[in-house]
Write a structure and sequence with these properties.
The protein is an alpha+beta fold. It is built from 2 helices and 6 strands; from the N terminus they run H-H-E-E-E-E-E-E. The N and C termini lie far apart (about 105 Å).
């Protein structure tokens, strides 16, 4: 009788070992899927946060432009006025916050014209063949590699 039970026990052990291997493989696949899903979710959240941040900054750019334009037209007799200094402080505060968000102004005057960063409003013909930004009409901004708003510029050939 022992001989009849022996193959059955060995067969059951082999079946159980095969089940363990199968279940272990399934568990490892599930863990890998879970890790991949977590990574994808983290990437999507980061992407959404970046898009939201970029949209908020785009909405604030006209406000910043207005403050800067106001400071360009301060009468000489009010330059040292506390109110004007307060407005200057607000503009500096905006600049600090934008810098902390990795937002920076696009360089313009004296730079080669780049259609990715500059929007040419007018063109001044010169005797050269290189297009150089001669005047900034509205500042442009970028966040990292993304252009939030191209700079509106005048371009001259030099």
């Amino acid at each position: 009788m022992a001989k009849k039970d022996e193959p059955t026990v060995n067969t059951e052990v082999e079946e159980l070992q095969q089940q363990i291997i199968t279940l272990t493989d399934a568990l490892q696949r599930e863990r890998a899927d879970s890790v991949n899903l977590r990574r994808q979710t983290d990437e999507q959240i980061a992407s959404i946060q970046t898009r939201v941040k970029a949209n908020v900054v785009r909405e604030l750019l006209p406000v910043i432009d207005s403050f800067e334009r106001a400071l360009l037209h301060v009468p000489e007799d009010l330059v040292e006025n506390d109110y004007v200094k307060g407005v200057q402080s607000v503009v500096k505060q905006f600049a600090t916050v934008l810098a902390s968000l990795d937002v920076e102004q696009i360089p313009t005057v004296g730079e080669p014209f780049d259609p990715h960063f500059h929007e040419a409003i007018s063109m001044e013909e010169g005797d050269g063949d290189q297009e150089i930004v001669s005047e900034e009409l509205q500042s442009g901004w970028r966040m990292g590699d993304e252009v939030l708003r191209p700079a509106m510029v005048r371009v001259a050939t030099k």
